[in-house]
Amino acid sequence: MNHRRPLGVLAALLLLTLSTLVAPGTATAAELLTNPGFEAGNLTGWTCSGGSVVTTPVRTGSYALTAAASASDQATCGQTVAVRPNTAYTLTGWVRGNYVYLGVTGGASTWTPSAPAYTKLTVAFTTGATQTSAEVYLHGWYGQGTYYADDVSLDGPGGQPQPGVPGTPGTPSIGAVTGSSVALSWTAATGTVTGYRVYEGSAVVATTSAVSATIGNLAACSTHTYAVAAYNTVGESPKSAAATATTAGCTDTGLPKHALIGYLHASFANGSGYVRMADVPDAWDIIQLAFGEPTSVTSGDIRFNRCPVSECPSVESEADFIAAIRAKQAKGKKVLISIGGQNGQVQLTTTAARDAFVTSVSAIIDRYGLDGLDIDFEGHSLYLNSGDTDFRNPTTPVVVNLIAALRTLKARYGAKFVLTMAPETFFVQVGYQFYGGSGGSDNRTGSYLPVIHAVRDFLTVLHVQDYNSGPVMGLDGQWHTMGGADFHIAMTDMVKAGFPVANTGQTFPGLRPEQIAIGLPAAVSAGNGYTSPAVVHQAVDCLAKGTGCGGYTLRGGPSPGLRGLMTWSVNWDRYYGWEFMNSHEPYLNGLP
Question: What is the pLDDT of residue 362?
Fold first, then answer.
């Protein structure tokens, strides 16, 4: 039995169709790409993971692009250009070959599964309110072979601001923070300035003629992201870069600043052997009991069955199991029931299922005296119905009912209730490019985002599985592949900084650093994407200290409060001589 199963990302993404944003009106068009038809006879202006120019087949002129997608590389060619905020653009290109994609990083895209002759692809998109650059790209698909492209064009106004509009203000600095307010200040914009507008998302939350403002009437322990724009009688400047702050009043759950989190095979052995609760070393700060599973997919009735003697000959009695949990808790450790896993599909399609979930999970927590709950929904547990495109106001029953159930459990157990989540990248970071069924993509993409957002006020730790994942595009516009430091850096930075959600026009706000941990396989047998301890430490050094980031720039800034590391699993770590624990626990203890 394997805990993690790679999702059908390839199958999902091959379903993509054209996703188009409605343009508010275009300005005078101009070609913005350098070397759009590759007539320089080389790839000047383009950055390619593989590719060259050819003299045949071409559509017009003397040259065209060719690139071959391998089993591990899509052969992406991209180009970044200056654009104006909130402005409509049209990207076109002529392509041929199998599975050729044309699109805008973080935005709309289109593709053709087969083009034996040059075929025109078109993508219309509108830049964001603060966007001043855009990366356009072409790529094939893994293992599908050679594609060609010619006469690529990006039409629209260049990146020069409208004459007379103020310059962009400086990034806000966070000042005094209370349980209900956040103070901001920023450097003045250049040019003639009438005043400044402070934005949270698309909403104006303050207007002032000064270079500071205090935003009040905020909820305790709530996270807010602000940007500032200057305005005058001519118009409004682009928004500044954003700054994020969290109001005071967050509950202390008793966790150490940096925690080691591990899943314990409590209901099965999975080839790695059974580990008795009493034998789990004290280095583990959160122990996730795997797994509670439903009686049927849609029942909501969760049962936790401890490993049978036939599979786990050394399994302890229930009394000893409970006594060992109490001993861990007396040392400050947290023990949670994890719901789901590979085989535990949970779809709360009805309010009856929601209520059964609350009742049955409460019974497990009470029976064993647990500290809370871990949500490890995989496969088809979460999805988004057609038209459900606002992560802030979801309408799909399986999402709405899960949120309601978690809020009910929080209310029942109070301030010390520990809630963690272990989604796969497909359900979180892939939402940067594709959200639900928007544009014809898999309706599960990004489907954890509304759940995370709705419970962010009491979510203890989110530890996304940085394994069993396909390549994922980061905020740097690059594809990142599991197993390297850059994958952990890019994936974690997305959760900390927040990110635009596909082509919805909305931005998912980042989480607090103490709510974020990195999910890793303990060993090569535990899951695809094993990362050596030295490389993990390189990634955490970047994320926590801002050092050793390579070529990556942290959009969310260094996070000294990063919670720590999660692994699947304690059992696999014991099987491989405790490499994960022995390498990472002293390292985490040494962080600031």
Answer: 98
* Rg of the Cα atoms in the chain: 25
Pairing of strands 564-568, 259-265: parallel
CA torsion 97-103-109-113 (nearest 10°) is: 10
Give the whole-angstrom CA distance, residue 320 versus residue 276: 9
Phi-psi region at 375: left, alpha or beta (left = phi > 0; alpha = psi -120 to 50): beta
For the record, the structure tokens of 540 come out as 């955490």
Asked whether the predicted pLDDT for residue 29 surpasses 60, the reply is: no
Q: At 84, which amino acid appears?
A: R
Q: How far apart are CA 496 and CA 491, in angstroms?
A: 9
The burial class, CB within 10 Å (0-12 / 13-18 / 19+), for 204 is: exposed
DSSP letter for 31, please: B
Distance CA 162, CA 192 (A): 13
Q: Is the dihedral of CA 274, 277, 283, 289 positive or negative?
A: positive
DSSP 148: E
Which secondary-structure segment (H or E) carries 564? strand 564-568
Q: For 161-165, 410-414, 537-541, which range has the lowest pLDDT when averaged over its residues?
A: 161-165
Angle of helix 533-540 relative to helix 485-497, nearest 10 degrees, comes to 30
d(CA 386, CA 365): 35
Query: Confidence band (pLDDT; 50, 70, 90) for 439?
Result: low
455, 407 contact by CB (below 8 A)? yes
Amino acid at 512: R
Average of per-residue pLDDT across 49-54: 87
Q: What pLDDT, on the 0 to 100 scale, is given for residue 27?
A: 35
- Point out the residues that are catalytic: 378
Q: In terms of pLDDT, which residue wins out, 504 or 287?
A: 287
Q: What is the pTM assigned to this prediction?
A: 0.70
Instruction: Check residue 20 and give its pLDDT.
Output: 29
Q: Are 531 and 484 in contact (CB under 8 A)?
A: yes
